[in-house]
Amino acid sequence: MKIAVVGLGYVGLPLSLEFARSCVSVLGIDVDPTKVELLNNRQSYIKHILPSTVAELVKSGKFSASTDFSLIKEVEAVIICVPTPLNKNREPDLSFISQTGRSIAPHLAKGALVVLESTTYPGTTEEELRVVLEQESRMKAGVDFHLAFSPEREDPANELSNLKQIPKVVGGYTPTCLDRAVALYSKTIDKVVPVSSCRVAEAAKLLENVFRSVNIALVNELKLVYGAMGIDIWEVIEAAKTKPFGFMPFYPGPGLGGHCIPIDPFYLTWKAREYGQHTRFIELAGEINTRMPEHVVHRVADALNAQRKAIKGSKILILGLAYKPNVDDERESPSYVLMKLLTERGAEVAYYDPYVPVIKPTREHPQFAGRKSIEWNRATIENFDVVLIATNHSSVNYHELGAWARCIVDTRNAMASVPVAPGKVWKA
After folding, report:
1. Pairing mode, if any, of strands 146-149 and 192-195?
2. Architecture of the domain delimited by 291-427
């Protein structure tokens, strides 16, 4: 069997390689020629995917990459893994899905299967992608080609997250479409979970991410409440999670990052308004999480005030640009917001991140593109008035940080087990 995966990012590339390991011939398609060239030269641009893995599958002939959409005429199935961001008005931007549909439709073979994996609101597969595919291919979904939705469940750098072992939810446009999609994913995924429609599969993915967003907002709010009471939220969570039932630990932070939790809930709130429904709970969670960087900046100000300094003119180091530990993915990272807020207040801001040596251009924060991570050494760290821990990478030597830094603002409880002088570490 030969398939195509469109979009070779943090979702599409791991999926492509997993299918290739299962003896499916995979054509990876991306509009970025740099990515395609790297992959065909047996290299990787995602830190947790080893070049040796790419090299092995390219050498075997089971995986190749291209920018040429016309090659889709050779495949039996196309899996779409493209971004679904929000526009400047915080509304769903489906342009990547629509453009991909227009690109693949003229080359779609009769009887082929198209599966959308990009997270989106219920109805996108049937109401948006299907229409584009039918108009551009002059074929009918469920008759001339098959259509399905299967949400991605990728968790980069999580050693317990094995794509093959994570159950795969699948919904089809018709029962036959569902059967074809289940058969496809069963070639590489241990457990496939069929549901009654594309809309149910789309809604399931949103539920997963809304669940996380709401619970993170809860602990973020409790961090503020308990902090005012002189109670350490981290100690509270450690105590609560000893309960073997009815509790699941979530942890506070400086804000939300990544391509899922800060974005996906707003796809649902936007679509809900079409049905006259108001998602107050989800929107409140978003409001709380979005406000966290401001709280962190206030704590930085408190820490500097204790040194008889102001934010303006102070040298501040943000430790960690990636949105989560031990990855090189900085999409929607709250570290960018922190950099912006502190810079606007007159601080001299730098960053250290072993996974992000140079800041790539972003739509939201183009002003930081090209900045480089500082060197990790005593002389450099001692030069900053405050080190703000935004991401707790495990590769960072926190004992060195405790010895070198003048003052530390810790949003991740990374310094909990490090002996430091009293008053040096401020929790945020």
Report:
1. unpaired
2. 3-Layer(aba) Sandwich (3.40)
